[in-house]
Structure prediction request, 497 residues.
Amino acid sequence: MTTPDVDAPAVPSTPDSAAQAAHRAAVAGARQATRQDAPPGRDAYAADGARAAETAASPEPSLADRPRPGGSSGGRSGLFSAEEVRAEFPALHRTVNGQPLAWLDNGATTHKPHRVIEALTGYYSYGNSNIHRGAHTMAREATEAYEASRAAVAGLLGASSAQDVVFVRGTTEAVNLVAQTWGRDNLGPGDDILVPVLEHHSNLVPWQLLARRTRARVVPVPLLPDGRLDQDAYADLLSLRTRLVVVSHVSNVLGTVQPVREMTALAHRYGARVLVDGAQAVAHMPVDVAELDADFYAFSGHKVFAPTGIGALYAKPELLAELAPWQGGGNMIEHVGFDGTEFAPAPHRLEAGTGHIAGAVGLLAALEWLTSLDRDGIAAHEARLTSYAQQALGTVPGLTLLGSAPDRVAVLTFTLAGHDPAHVADWLDRNGIAVRSGHHCAQPSLAHFGVTSATRASLALYNTAEEVDRLVAALHALTSGEDATPPPPSQPGGPGG
Ligand code: PMP
Prediction:
């Protein structure tokens, strides 16, 4: 493997040398990943994990009278250690309002491990260049890293080729891309778009806009009282008019996992296409677009330990080949003349202008990191922590959890009788606990439960039972009248749901 030329002072143990090393590693890793067309394997971290398991930290403090499912830490399984992983996240070690931070707002965004931050610093310090043009070393290095990131996304999603992946700003942009390309070309008056009531606004509003333009119909798929998608109603609503079904893999309000494979198979019987919003799924579970038979799959980097402003859309190759350009500009053409323009093949045809190169570099680092972990161990840890939190929250007087569907991942949304959700979030913030309150960009699903606002705690692989204990203890304190400050005015609940 060739080492890239990085013309910078090699002074050991300075922040610069760390950035330089990160950049060298990123370029070397990019070359390897490009060759393999898939993210590196998990061997390196498995060794770390084994060491971590051997030197497991002492049990965490807990609410004395509450048993913890899965042992004292509530969070270790096999090679995976939440404590070990926490050490890699600088933000998790800060204090907020004089308390150690408990970040329970992972549904909105996740924190970034050192290696993602270092990859960004390394790129901007020593690797910065535009890509896909410019015949010089740094342009080539940046292009290799960008394309290696695309290959890593393909590896994460089980796509057969990196060329099936389009870089976008995030899930919202991915959905809008499909609406404005495939949607405009394939929908017309009388066509149906089936949208479950639990969808995030970013998987509803673009379809409403498209429906207005094409005179297609947006048809809501109802929920059962427990929050599950009503599969009988779904089957009844499907018809030969159905051109598209959209569905979130994991709900950002309920954490419920939708039976995407079954829904896709049914939709395909009617010739409908299926778009899966994976924003809340990819950080929590392995995804295989081939197994799901998804036509489109979207996610946001910032919810999977990568930077904001970068995300990806997977599309089946035959669909991608059909998608017309939605934005014109540089990088997406083969030839431009006043007599007409010839467009580049997908995915580049759909990526006009300079992409978020640093974001892609950070995404590559994040995905290499995530896929090197024991993902079954992560899933087991999160499942235990979620059911522990569910049980523990049940002890808070007046607390009602939204939804009781069994298959739930990492999300706990609740109301607290007599307390405005904004006030609950503010009280928790004063205790160093970050949660979100509001409508979570999913007003129809809150309406299903008869509320307009709720508080949401959302977990990630680095959360611990101790943090859940702090959440529950603070809620107990609130309900027993410890908070004497007047509640802040109710907030509508902005983005980030
Ligand atoms: N879908 C779901 C299920 C989400 O949770 C979110 C973000 N909360 C989005 C879509 C939108 O993601 P982004 O804002 O990163 O585009």
